[in-house]
């Protein structure tokens, strides 16, 4: 990656799911040395601080079955505005979560800057539930569905009306926990998914080469990486709220980030679901920062 001006935006939001603590994720990632790591590579890093998220008790939006809907909307509107401003100013938005519901705001903020955006969703989950299919009502399991135009109107039309990304421009990597409604939607929309089966059978190198070629063939004008730390096996990232055994390894993830860096296609990124309360000596945040290093061009030799 060419030397960039990176705009770090923290989003201390834990209202898109049901376990407290992930709101401290941005602080944990900073504590693990994110800014110094990126500056050592040669990038200009501007830490914009954290978006203000109201401290409220958890509530149920019983009328639509979505938890904490209004609070999630408020935080994501603020995030969308800040991401759009960063893109307009020629900066690389690097968003630190917070739970994965923040991807709604990130992708909404990117829409104006790209006419044919691609998305790489690096996650154990596909996050394509809606209120009708979600077993929990947690919005952090819905952001990818929202961004293709499915879900509650206030989420789908956040910051701008309609879908934020085309279904054919999405690649999901590392999936291994998929709800029945999500499976049906993925099949209906023809979304490109590499499950752990493909990674185990063909190897991460093949999967990343194929994913990169897939997006290049669609002539995307930018690619957003949305990386949930539970995409990795919980052996490496114990500090996540929804761990799923049998995930991507630490080294495979570094390889994936290195290959994305070599491709030159990543134009924005977010790292989400670091929960220090569940972590072991900030291990998960350390992994997040290490992967950032590989994504932004850190080399062994």
Description:
The protein has 301 residues and is of the alpha/beta class. It is built from 11 helices and 10 strands. It has helices at 25-31, 34-41, 69-88, 103-110, 143-147, 153-156, 180-189, 196-202, 204-217, 250-263, 283-295; strands at 5-11, 44-50, 60-61, 66-67, 92-97, 117-122, 170-175, 192-195, 222-228, 266-272. Strands 2-1-5-10-9-6-7-8 form an 8-stranded parallel beta sheet, sandwiched between helices. The mean pLDDT is 95.
Report the helical percentage: 25-40%
- The geometry reads as globular
Q: Biggest sheet, open or closed, and with what strands and sense?
A: 8 strands, parallel
In terms of quaternary structure, what is this? single chain
Keywords:
37% helix; single chain; eight-stranded parallel sheet; two-stranded antiparallel ribbon; alpha/beta; 301 residues
Quick recap of the structure?
By secondary structure, the chain is of the alpha/beta class. Helices cover about 35% and strands about 20% of the residues. It is built from eleven helices and ten strands.
Topology of helices and strands:
Blueprint: E1 5-11, H1 25-31, H2 34-41, E2 44-50, E3 60-61, E4 66-67, H3 69-88, E5 92-97, H4 103-110, E6 117-122, H5 143-147, H6 153-156, E7 170-175, H7 180-189, E8 192-195, H8 196-202, H9 204-217, E9 222-228, H10 250-263, E10 266-272, H11 283-295
Parallel strand pairs: 1-2, 1-5, 5-10, 6-7, 6-9, 7-8, 9-10
Antiparallel strand pairs: 3-4
Helix pairs in contact: 1-11, 2-11, 3-4, 8-9, 9-10, 10-11
């Amino acid at each position: 990656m060419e030397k960039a001006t990176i705009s770090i935006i923290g989003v201390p939001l834990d209202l898109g799911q049901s376990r407290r603590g992930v709101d401290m994720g941005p602080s944990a990632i900073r504590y693990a040395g994110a800014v110094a790591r990126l500056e050592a590579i040669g990038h200009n890093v501007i830490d914009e601080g954290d978006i203000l998220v109201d401290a409220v008790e958890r509530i149920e939006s019983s009328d639509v079955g979505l938890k904490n809907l209004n609070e999630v909307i408020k935080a994501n509107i603020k995030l969308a505005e800040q991401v759009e401003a960063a893109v307009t100013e020629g900066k690389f938005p690097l968003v630190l979560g917070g739970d994965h519901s923040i991807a709604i705001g990130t992708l909404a903020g990117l829409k104006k800057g790209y006419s044919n955006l691609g998305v790489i969703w690096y996650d154990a989950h596909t996050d394509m539930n809606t209120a009708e299919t979600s077993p929990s009502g947690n919005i952090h399991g819905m952001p990818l569905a929202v961004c293709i135009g499915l879900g509650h109107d206030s989420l789908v039309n956040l910051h701008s009306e309609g879908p934020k990304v085309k279904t054919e421009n999405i690649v999901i990597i590392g999936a291994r926990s998929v709800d029945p409604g999500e499976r049906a939607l993925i099949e209906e929309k023809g979304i490109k998914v590499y499950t752990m089966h493909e990674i185990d059978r063909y190897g991460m190198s093949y999967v990343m080469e194929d994913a990169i070629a897939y997006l290049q063939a669609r002539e995307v004008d930018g690619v957003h990486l949305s990386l949930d730390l539970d995409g990795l096996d919980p052996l490496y990232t114990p500090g996540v709220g929804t761990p799923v055994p049998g995930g991507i390894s630490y080294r495979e993830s570094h390889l994936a980030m290195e290959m994305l860096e070599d491709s030159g296609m990543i134009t924005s990124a977010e790292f989400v679901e670091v929960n220090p309360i569940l972590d072991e000596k900030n291990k998960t945040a350390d992994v997040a920062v290490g992967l950032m290093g590989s994504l932004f061009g850190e080399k062994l030799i």
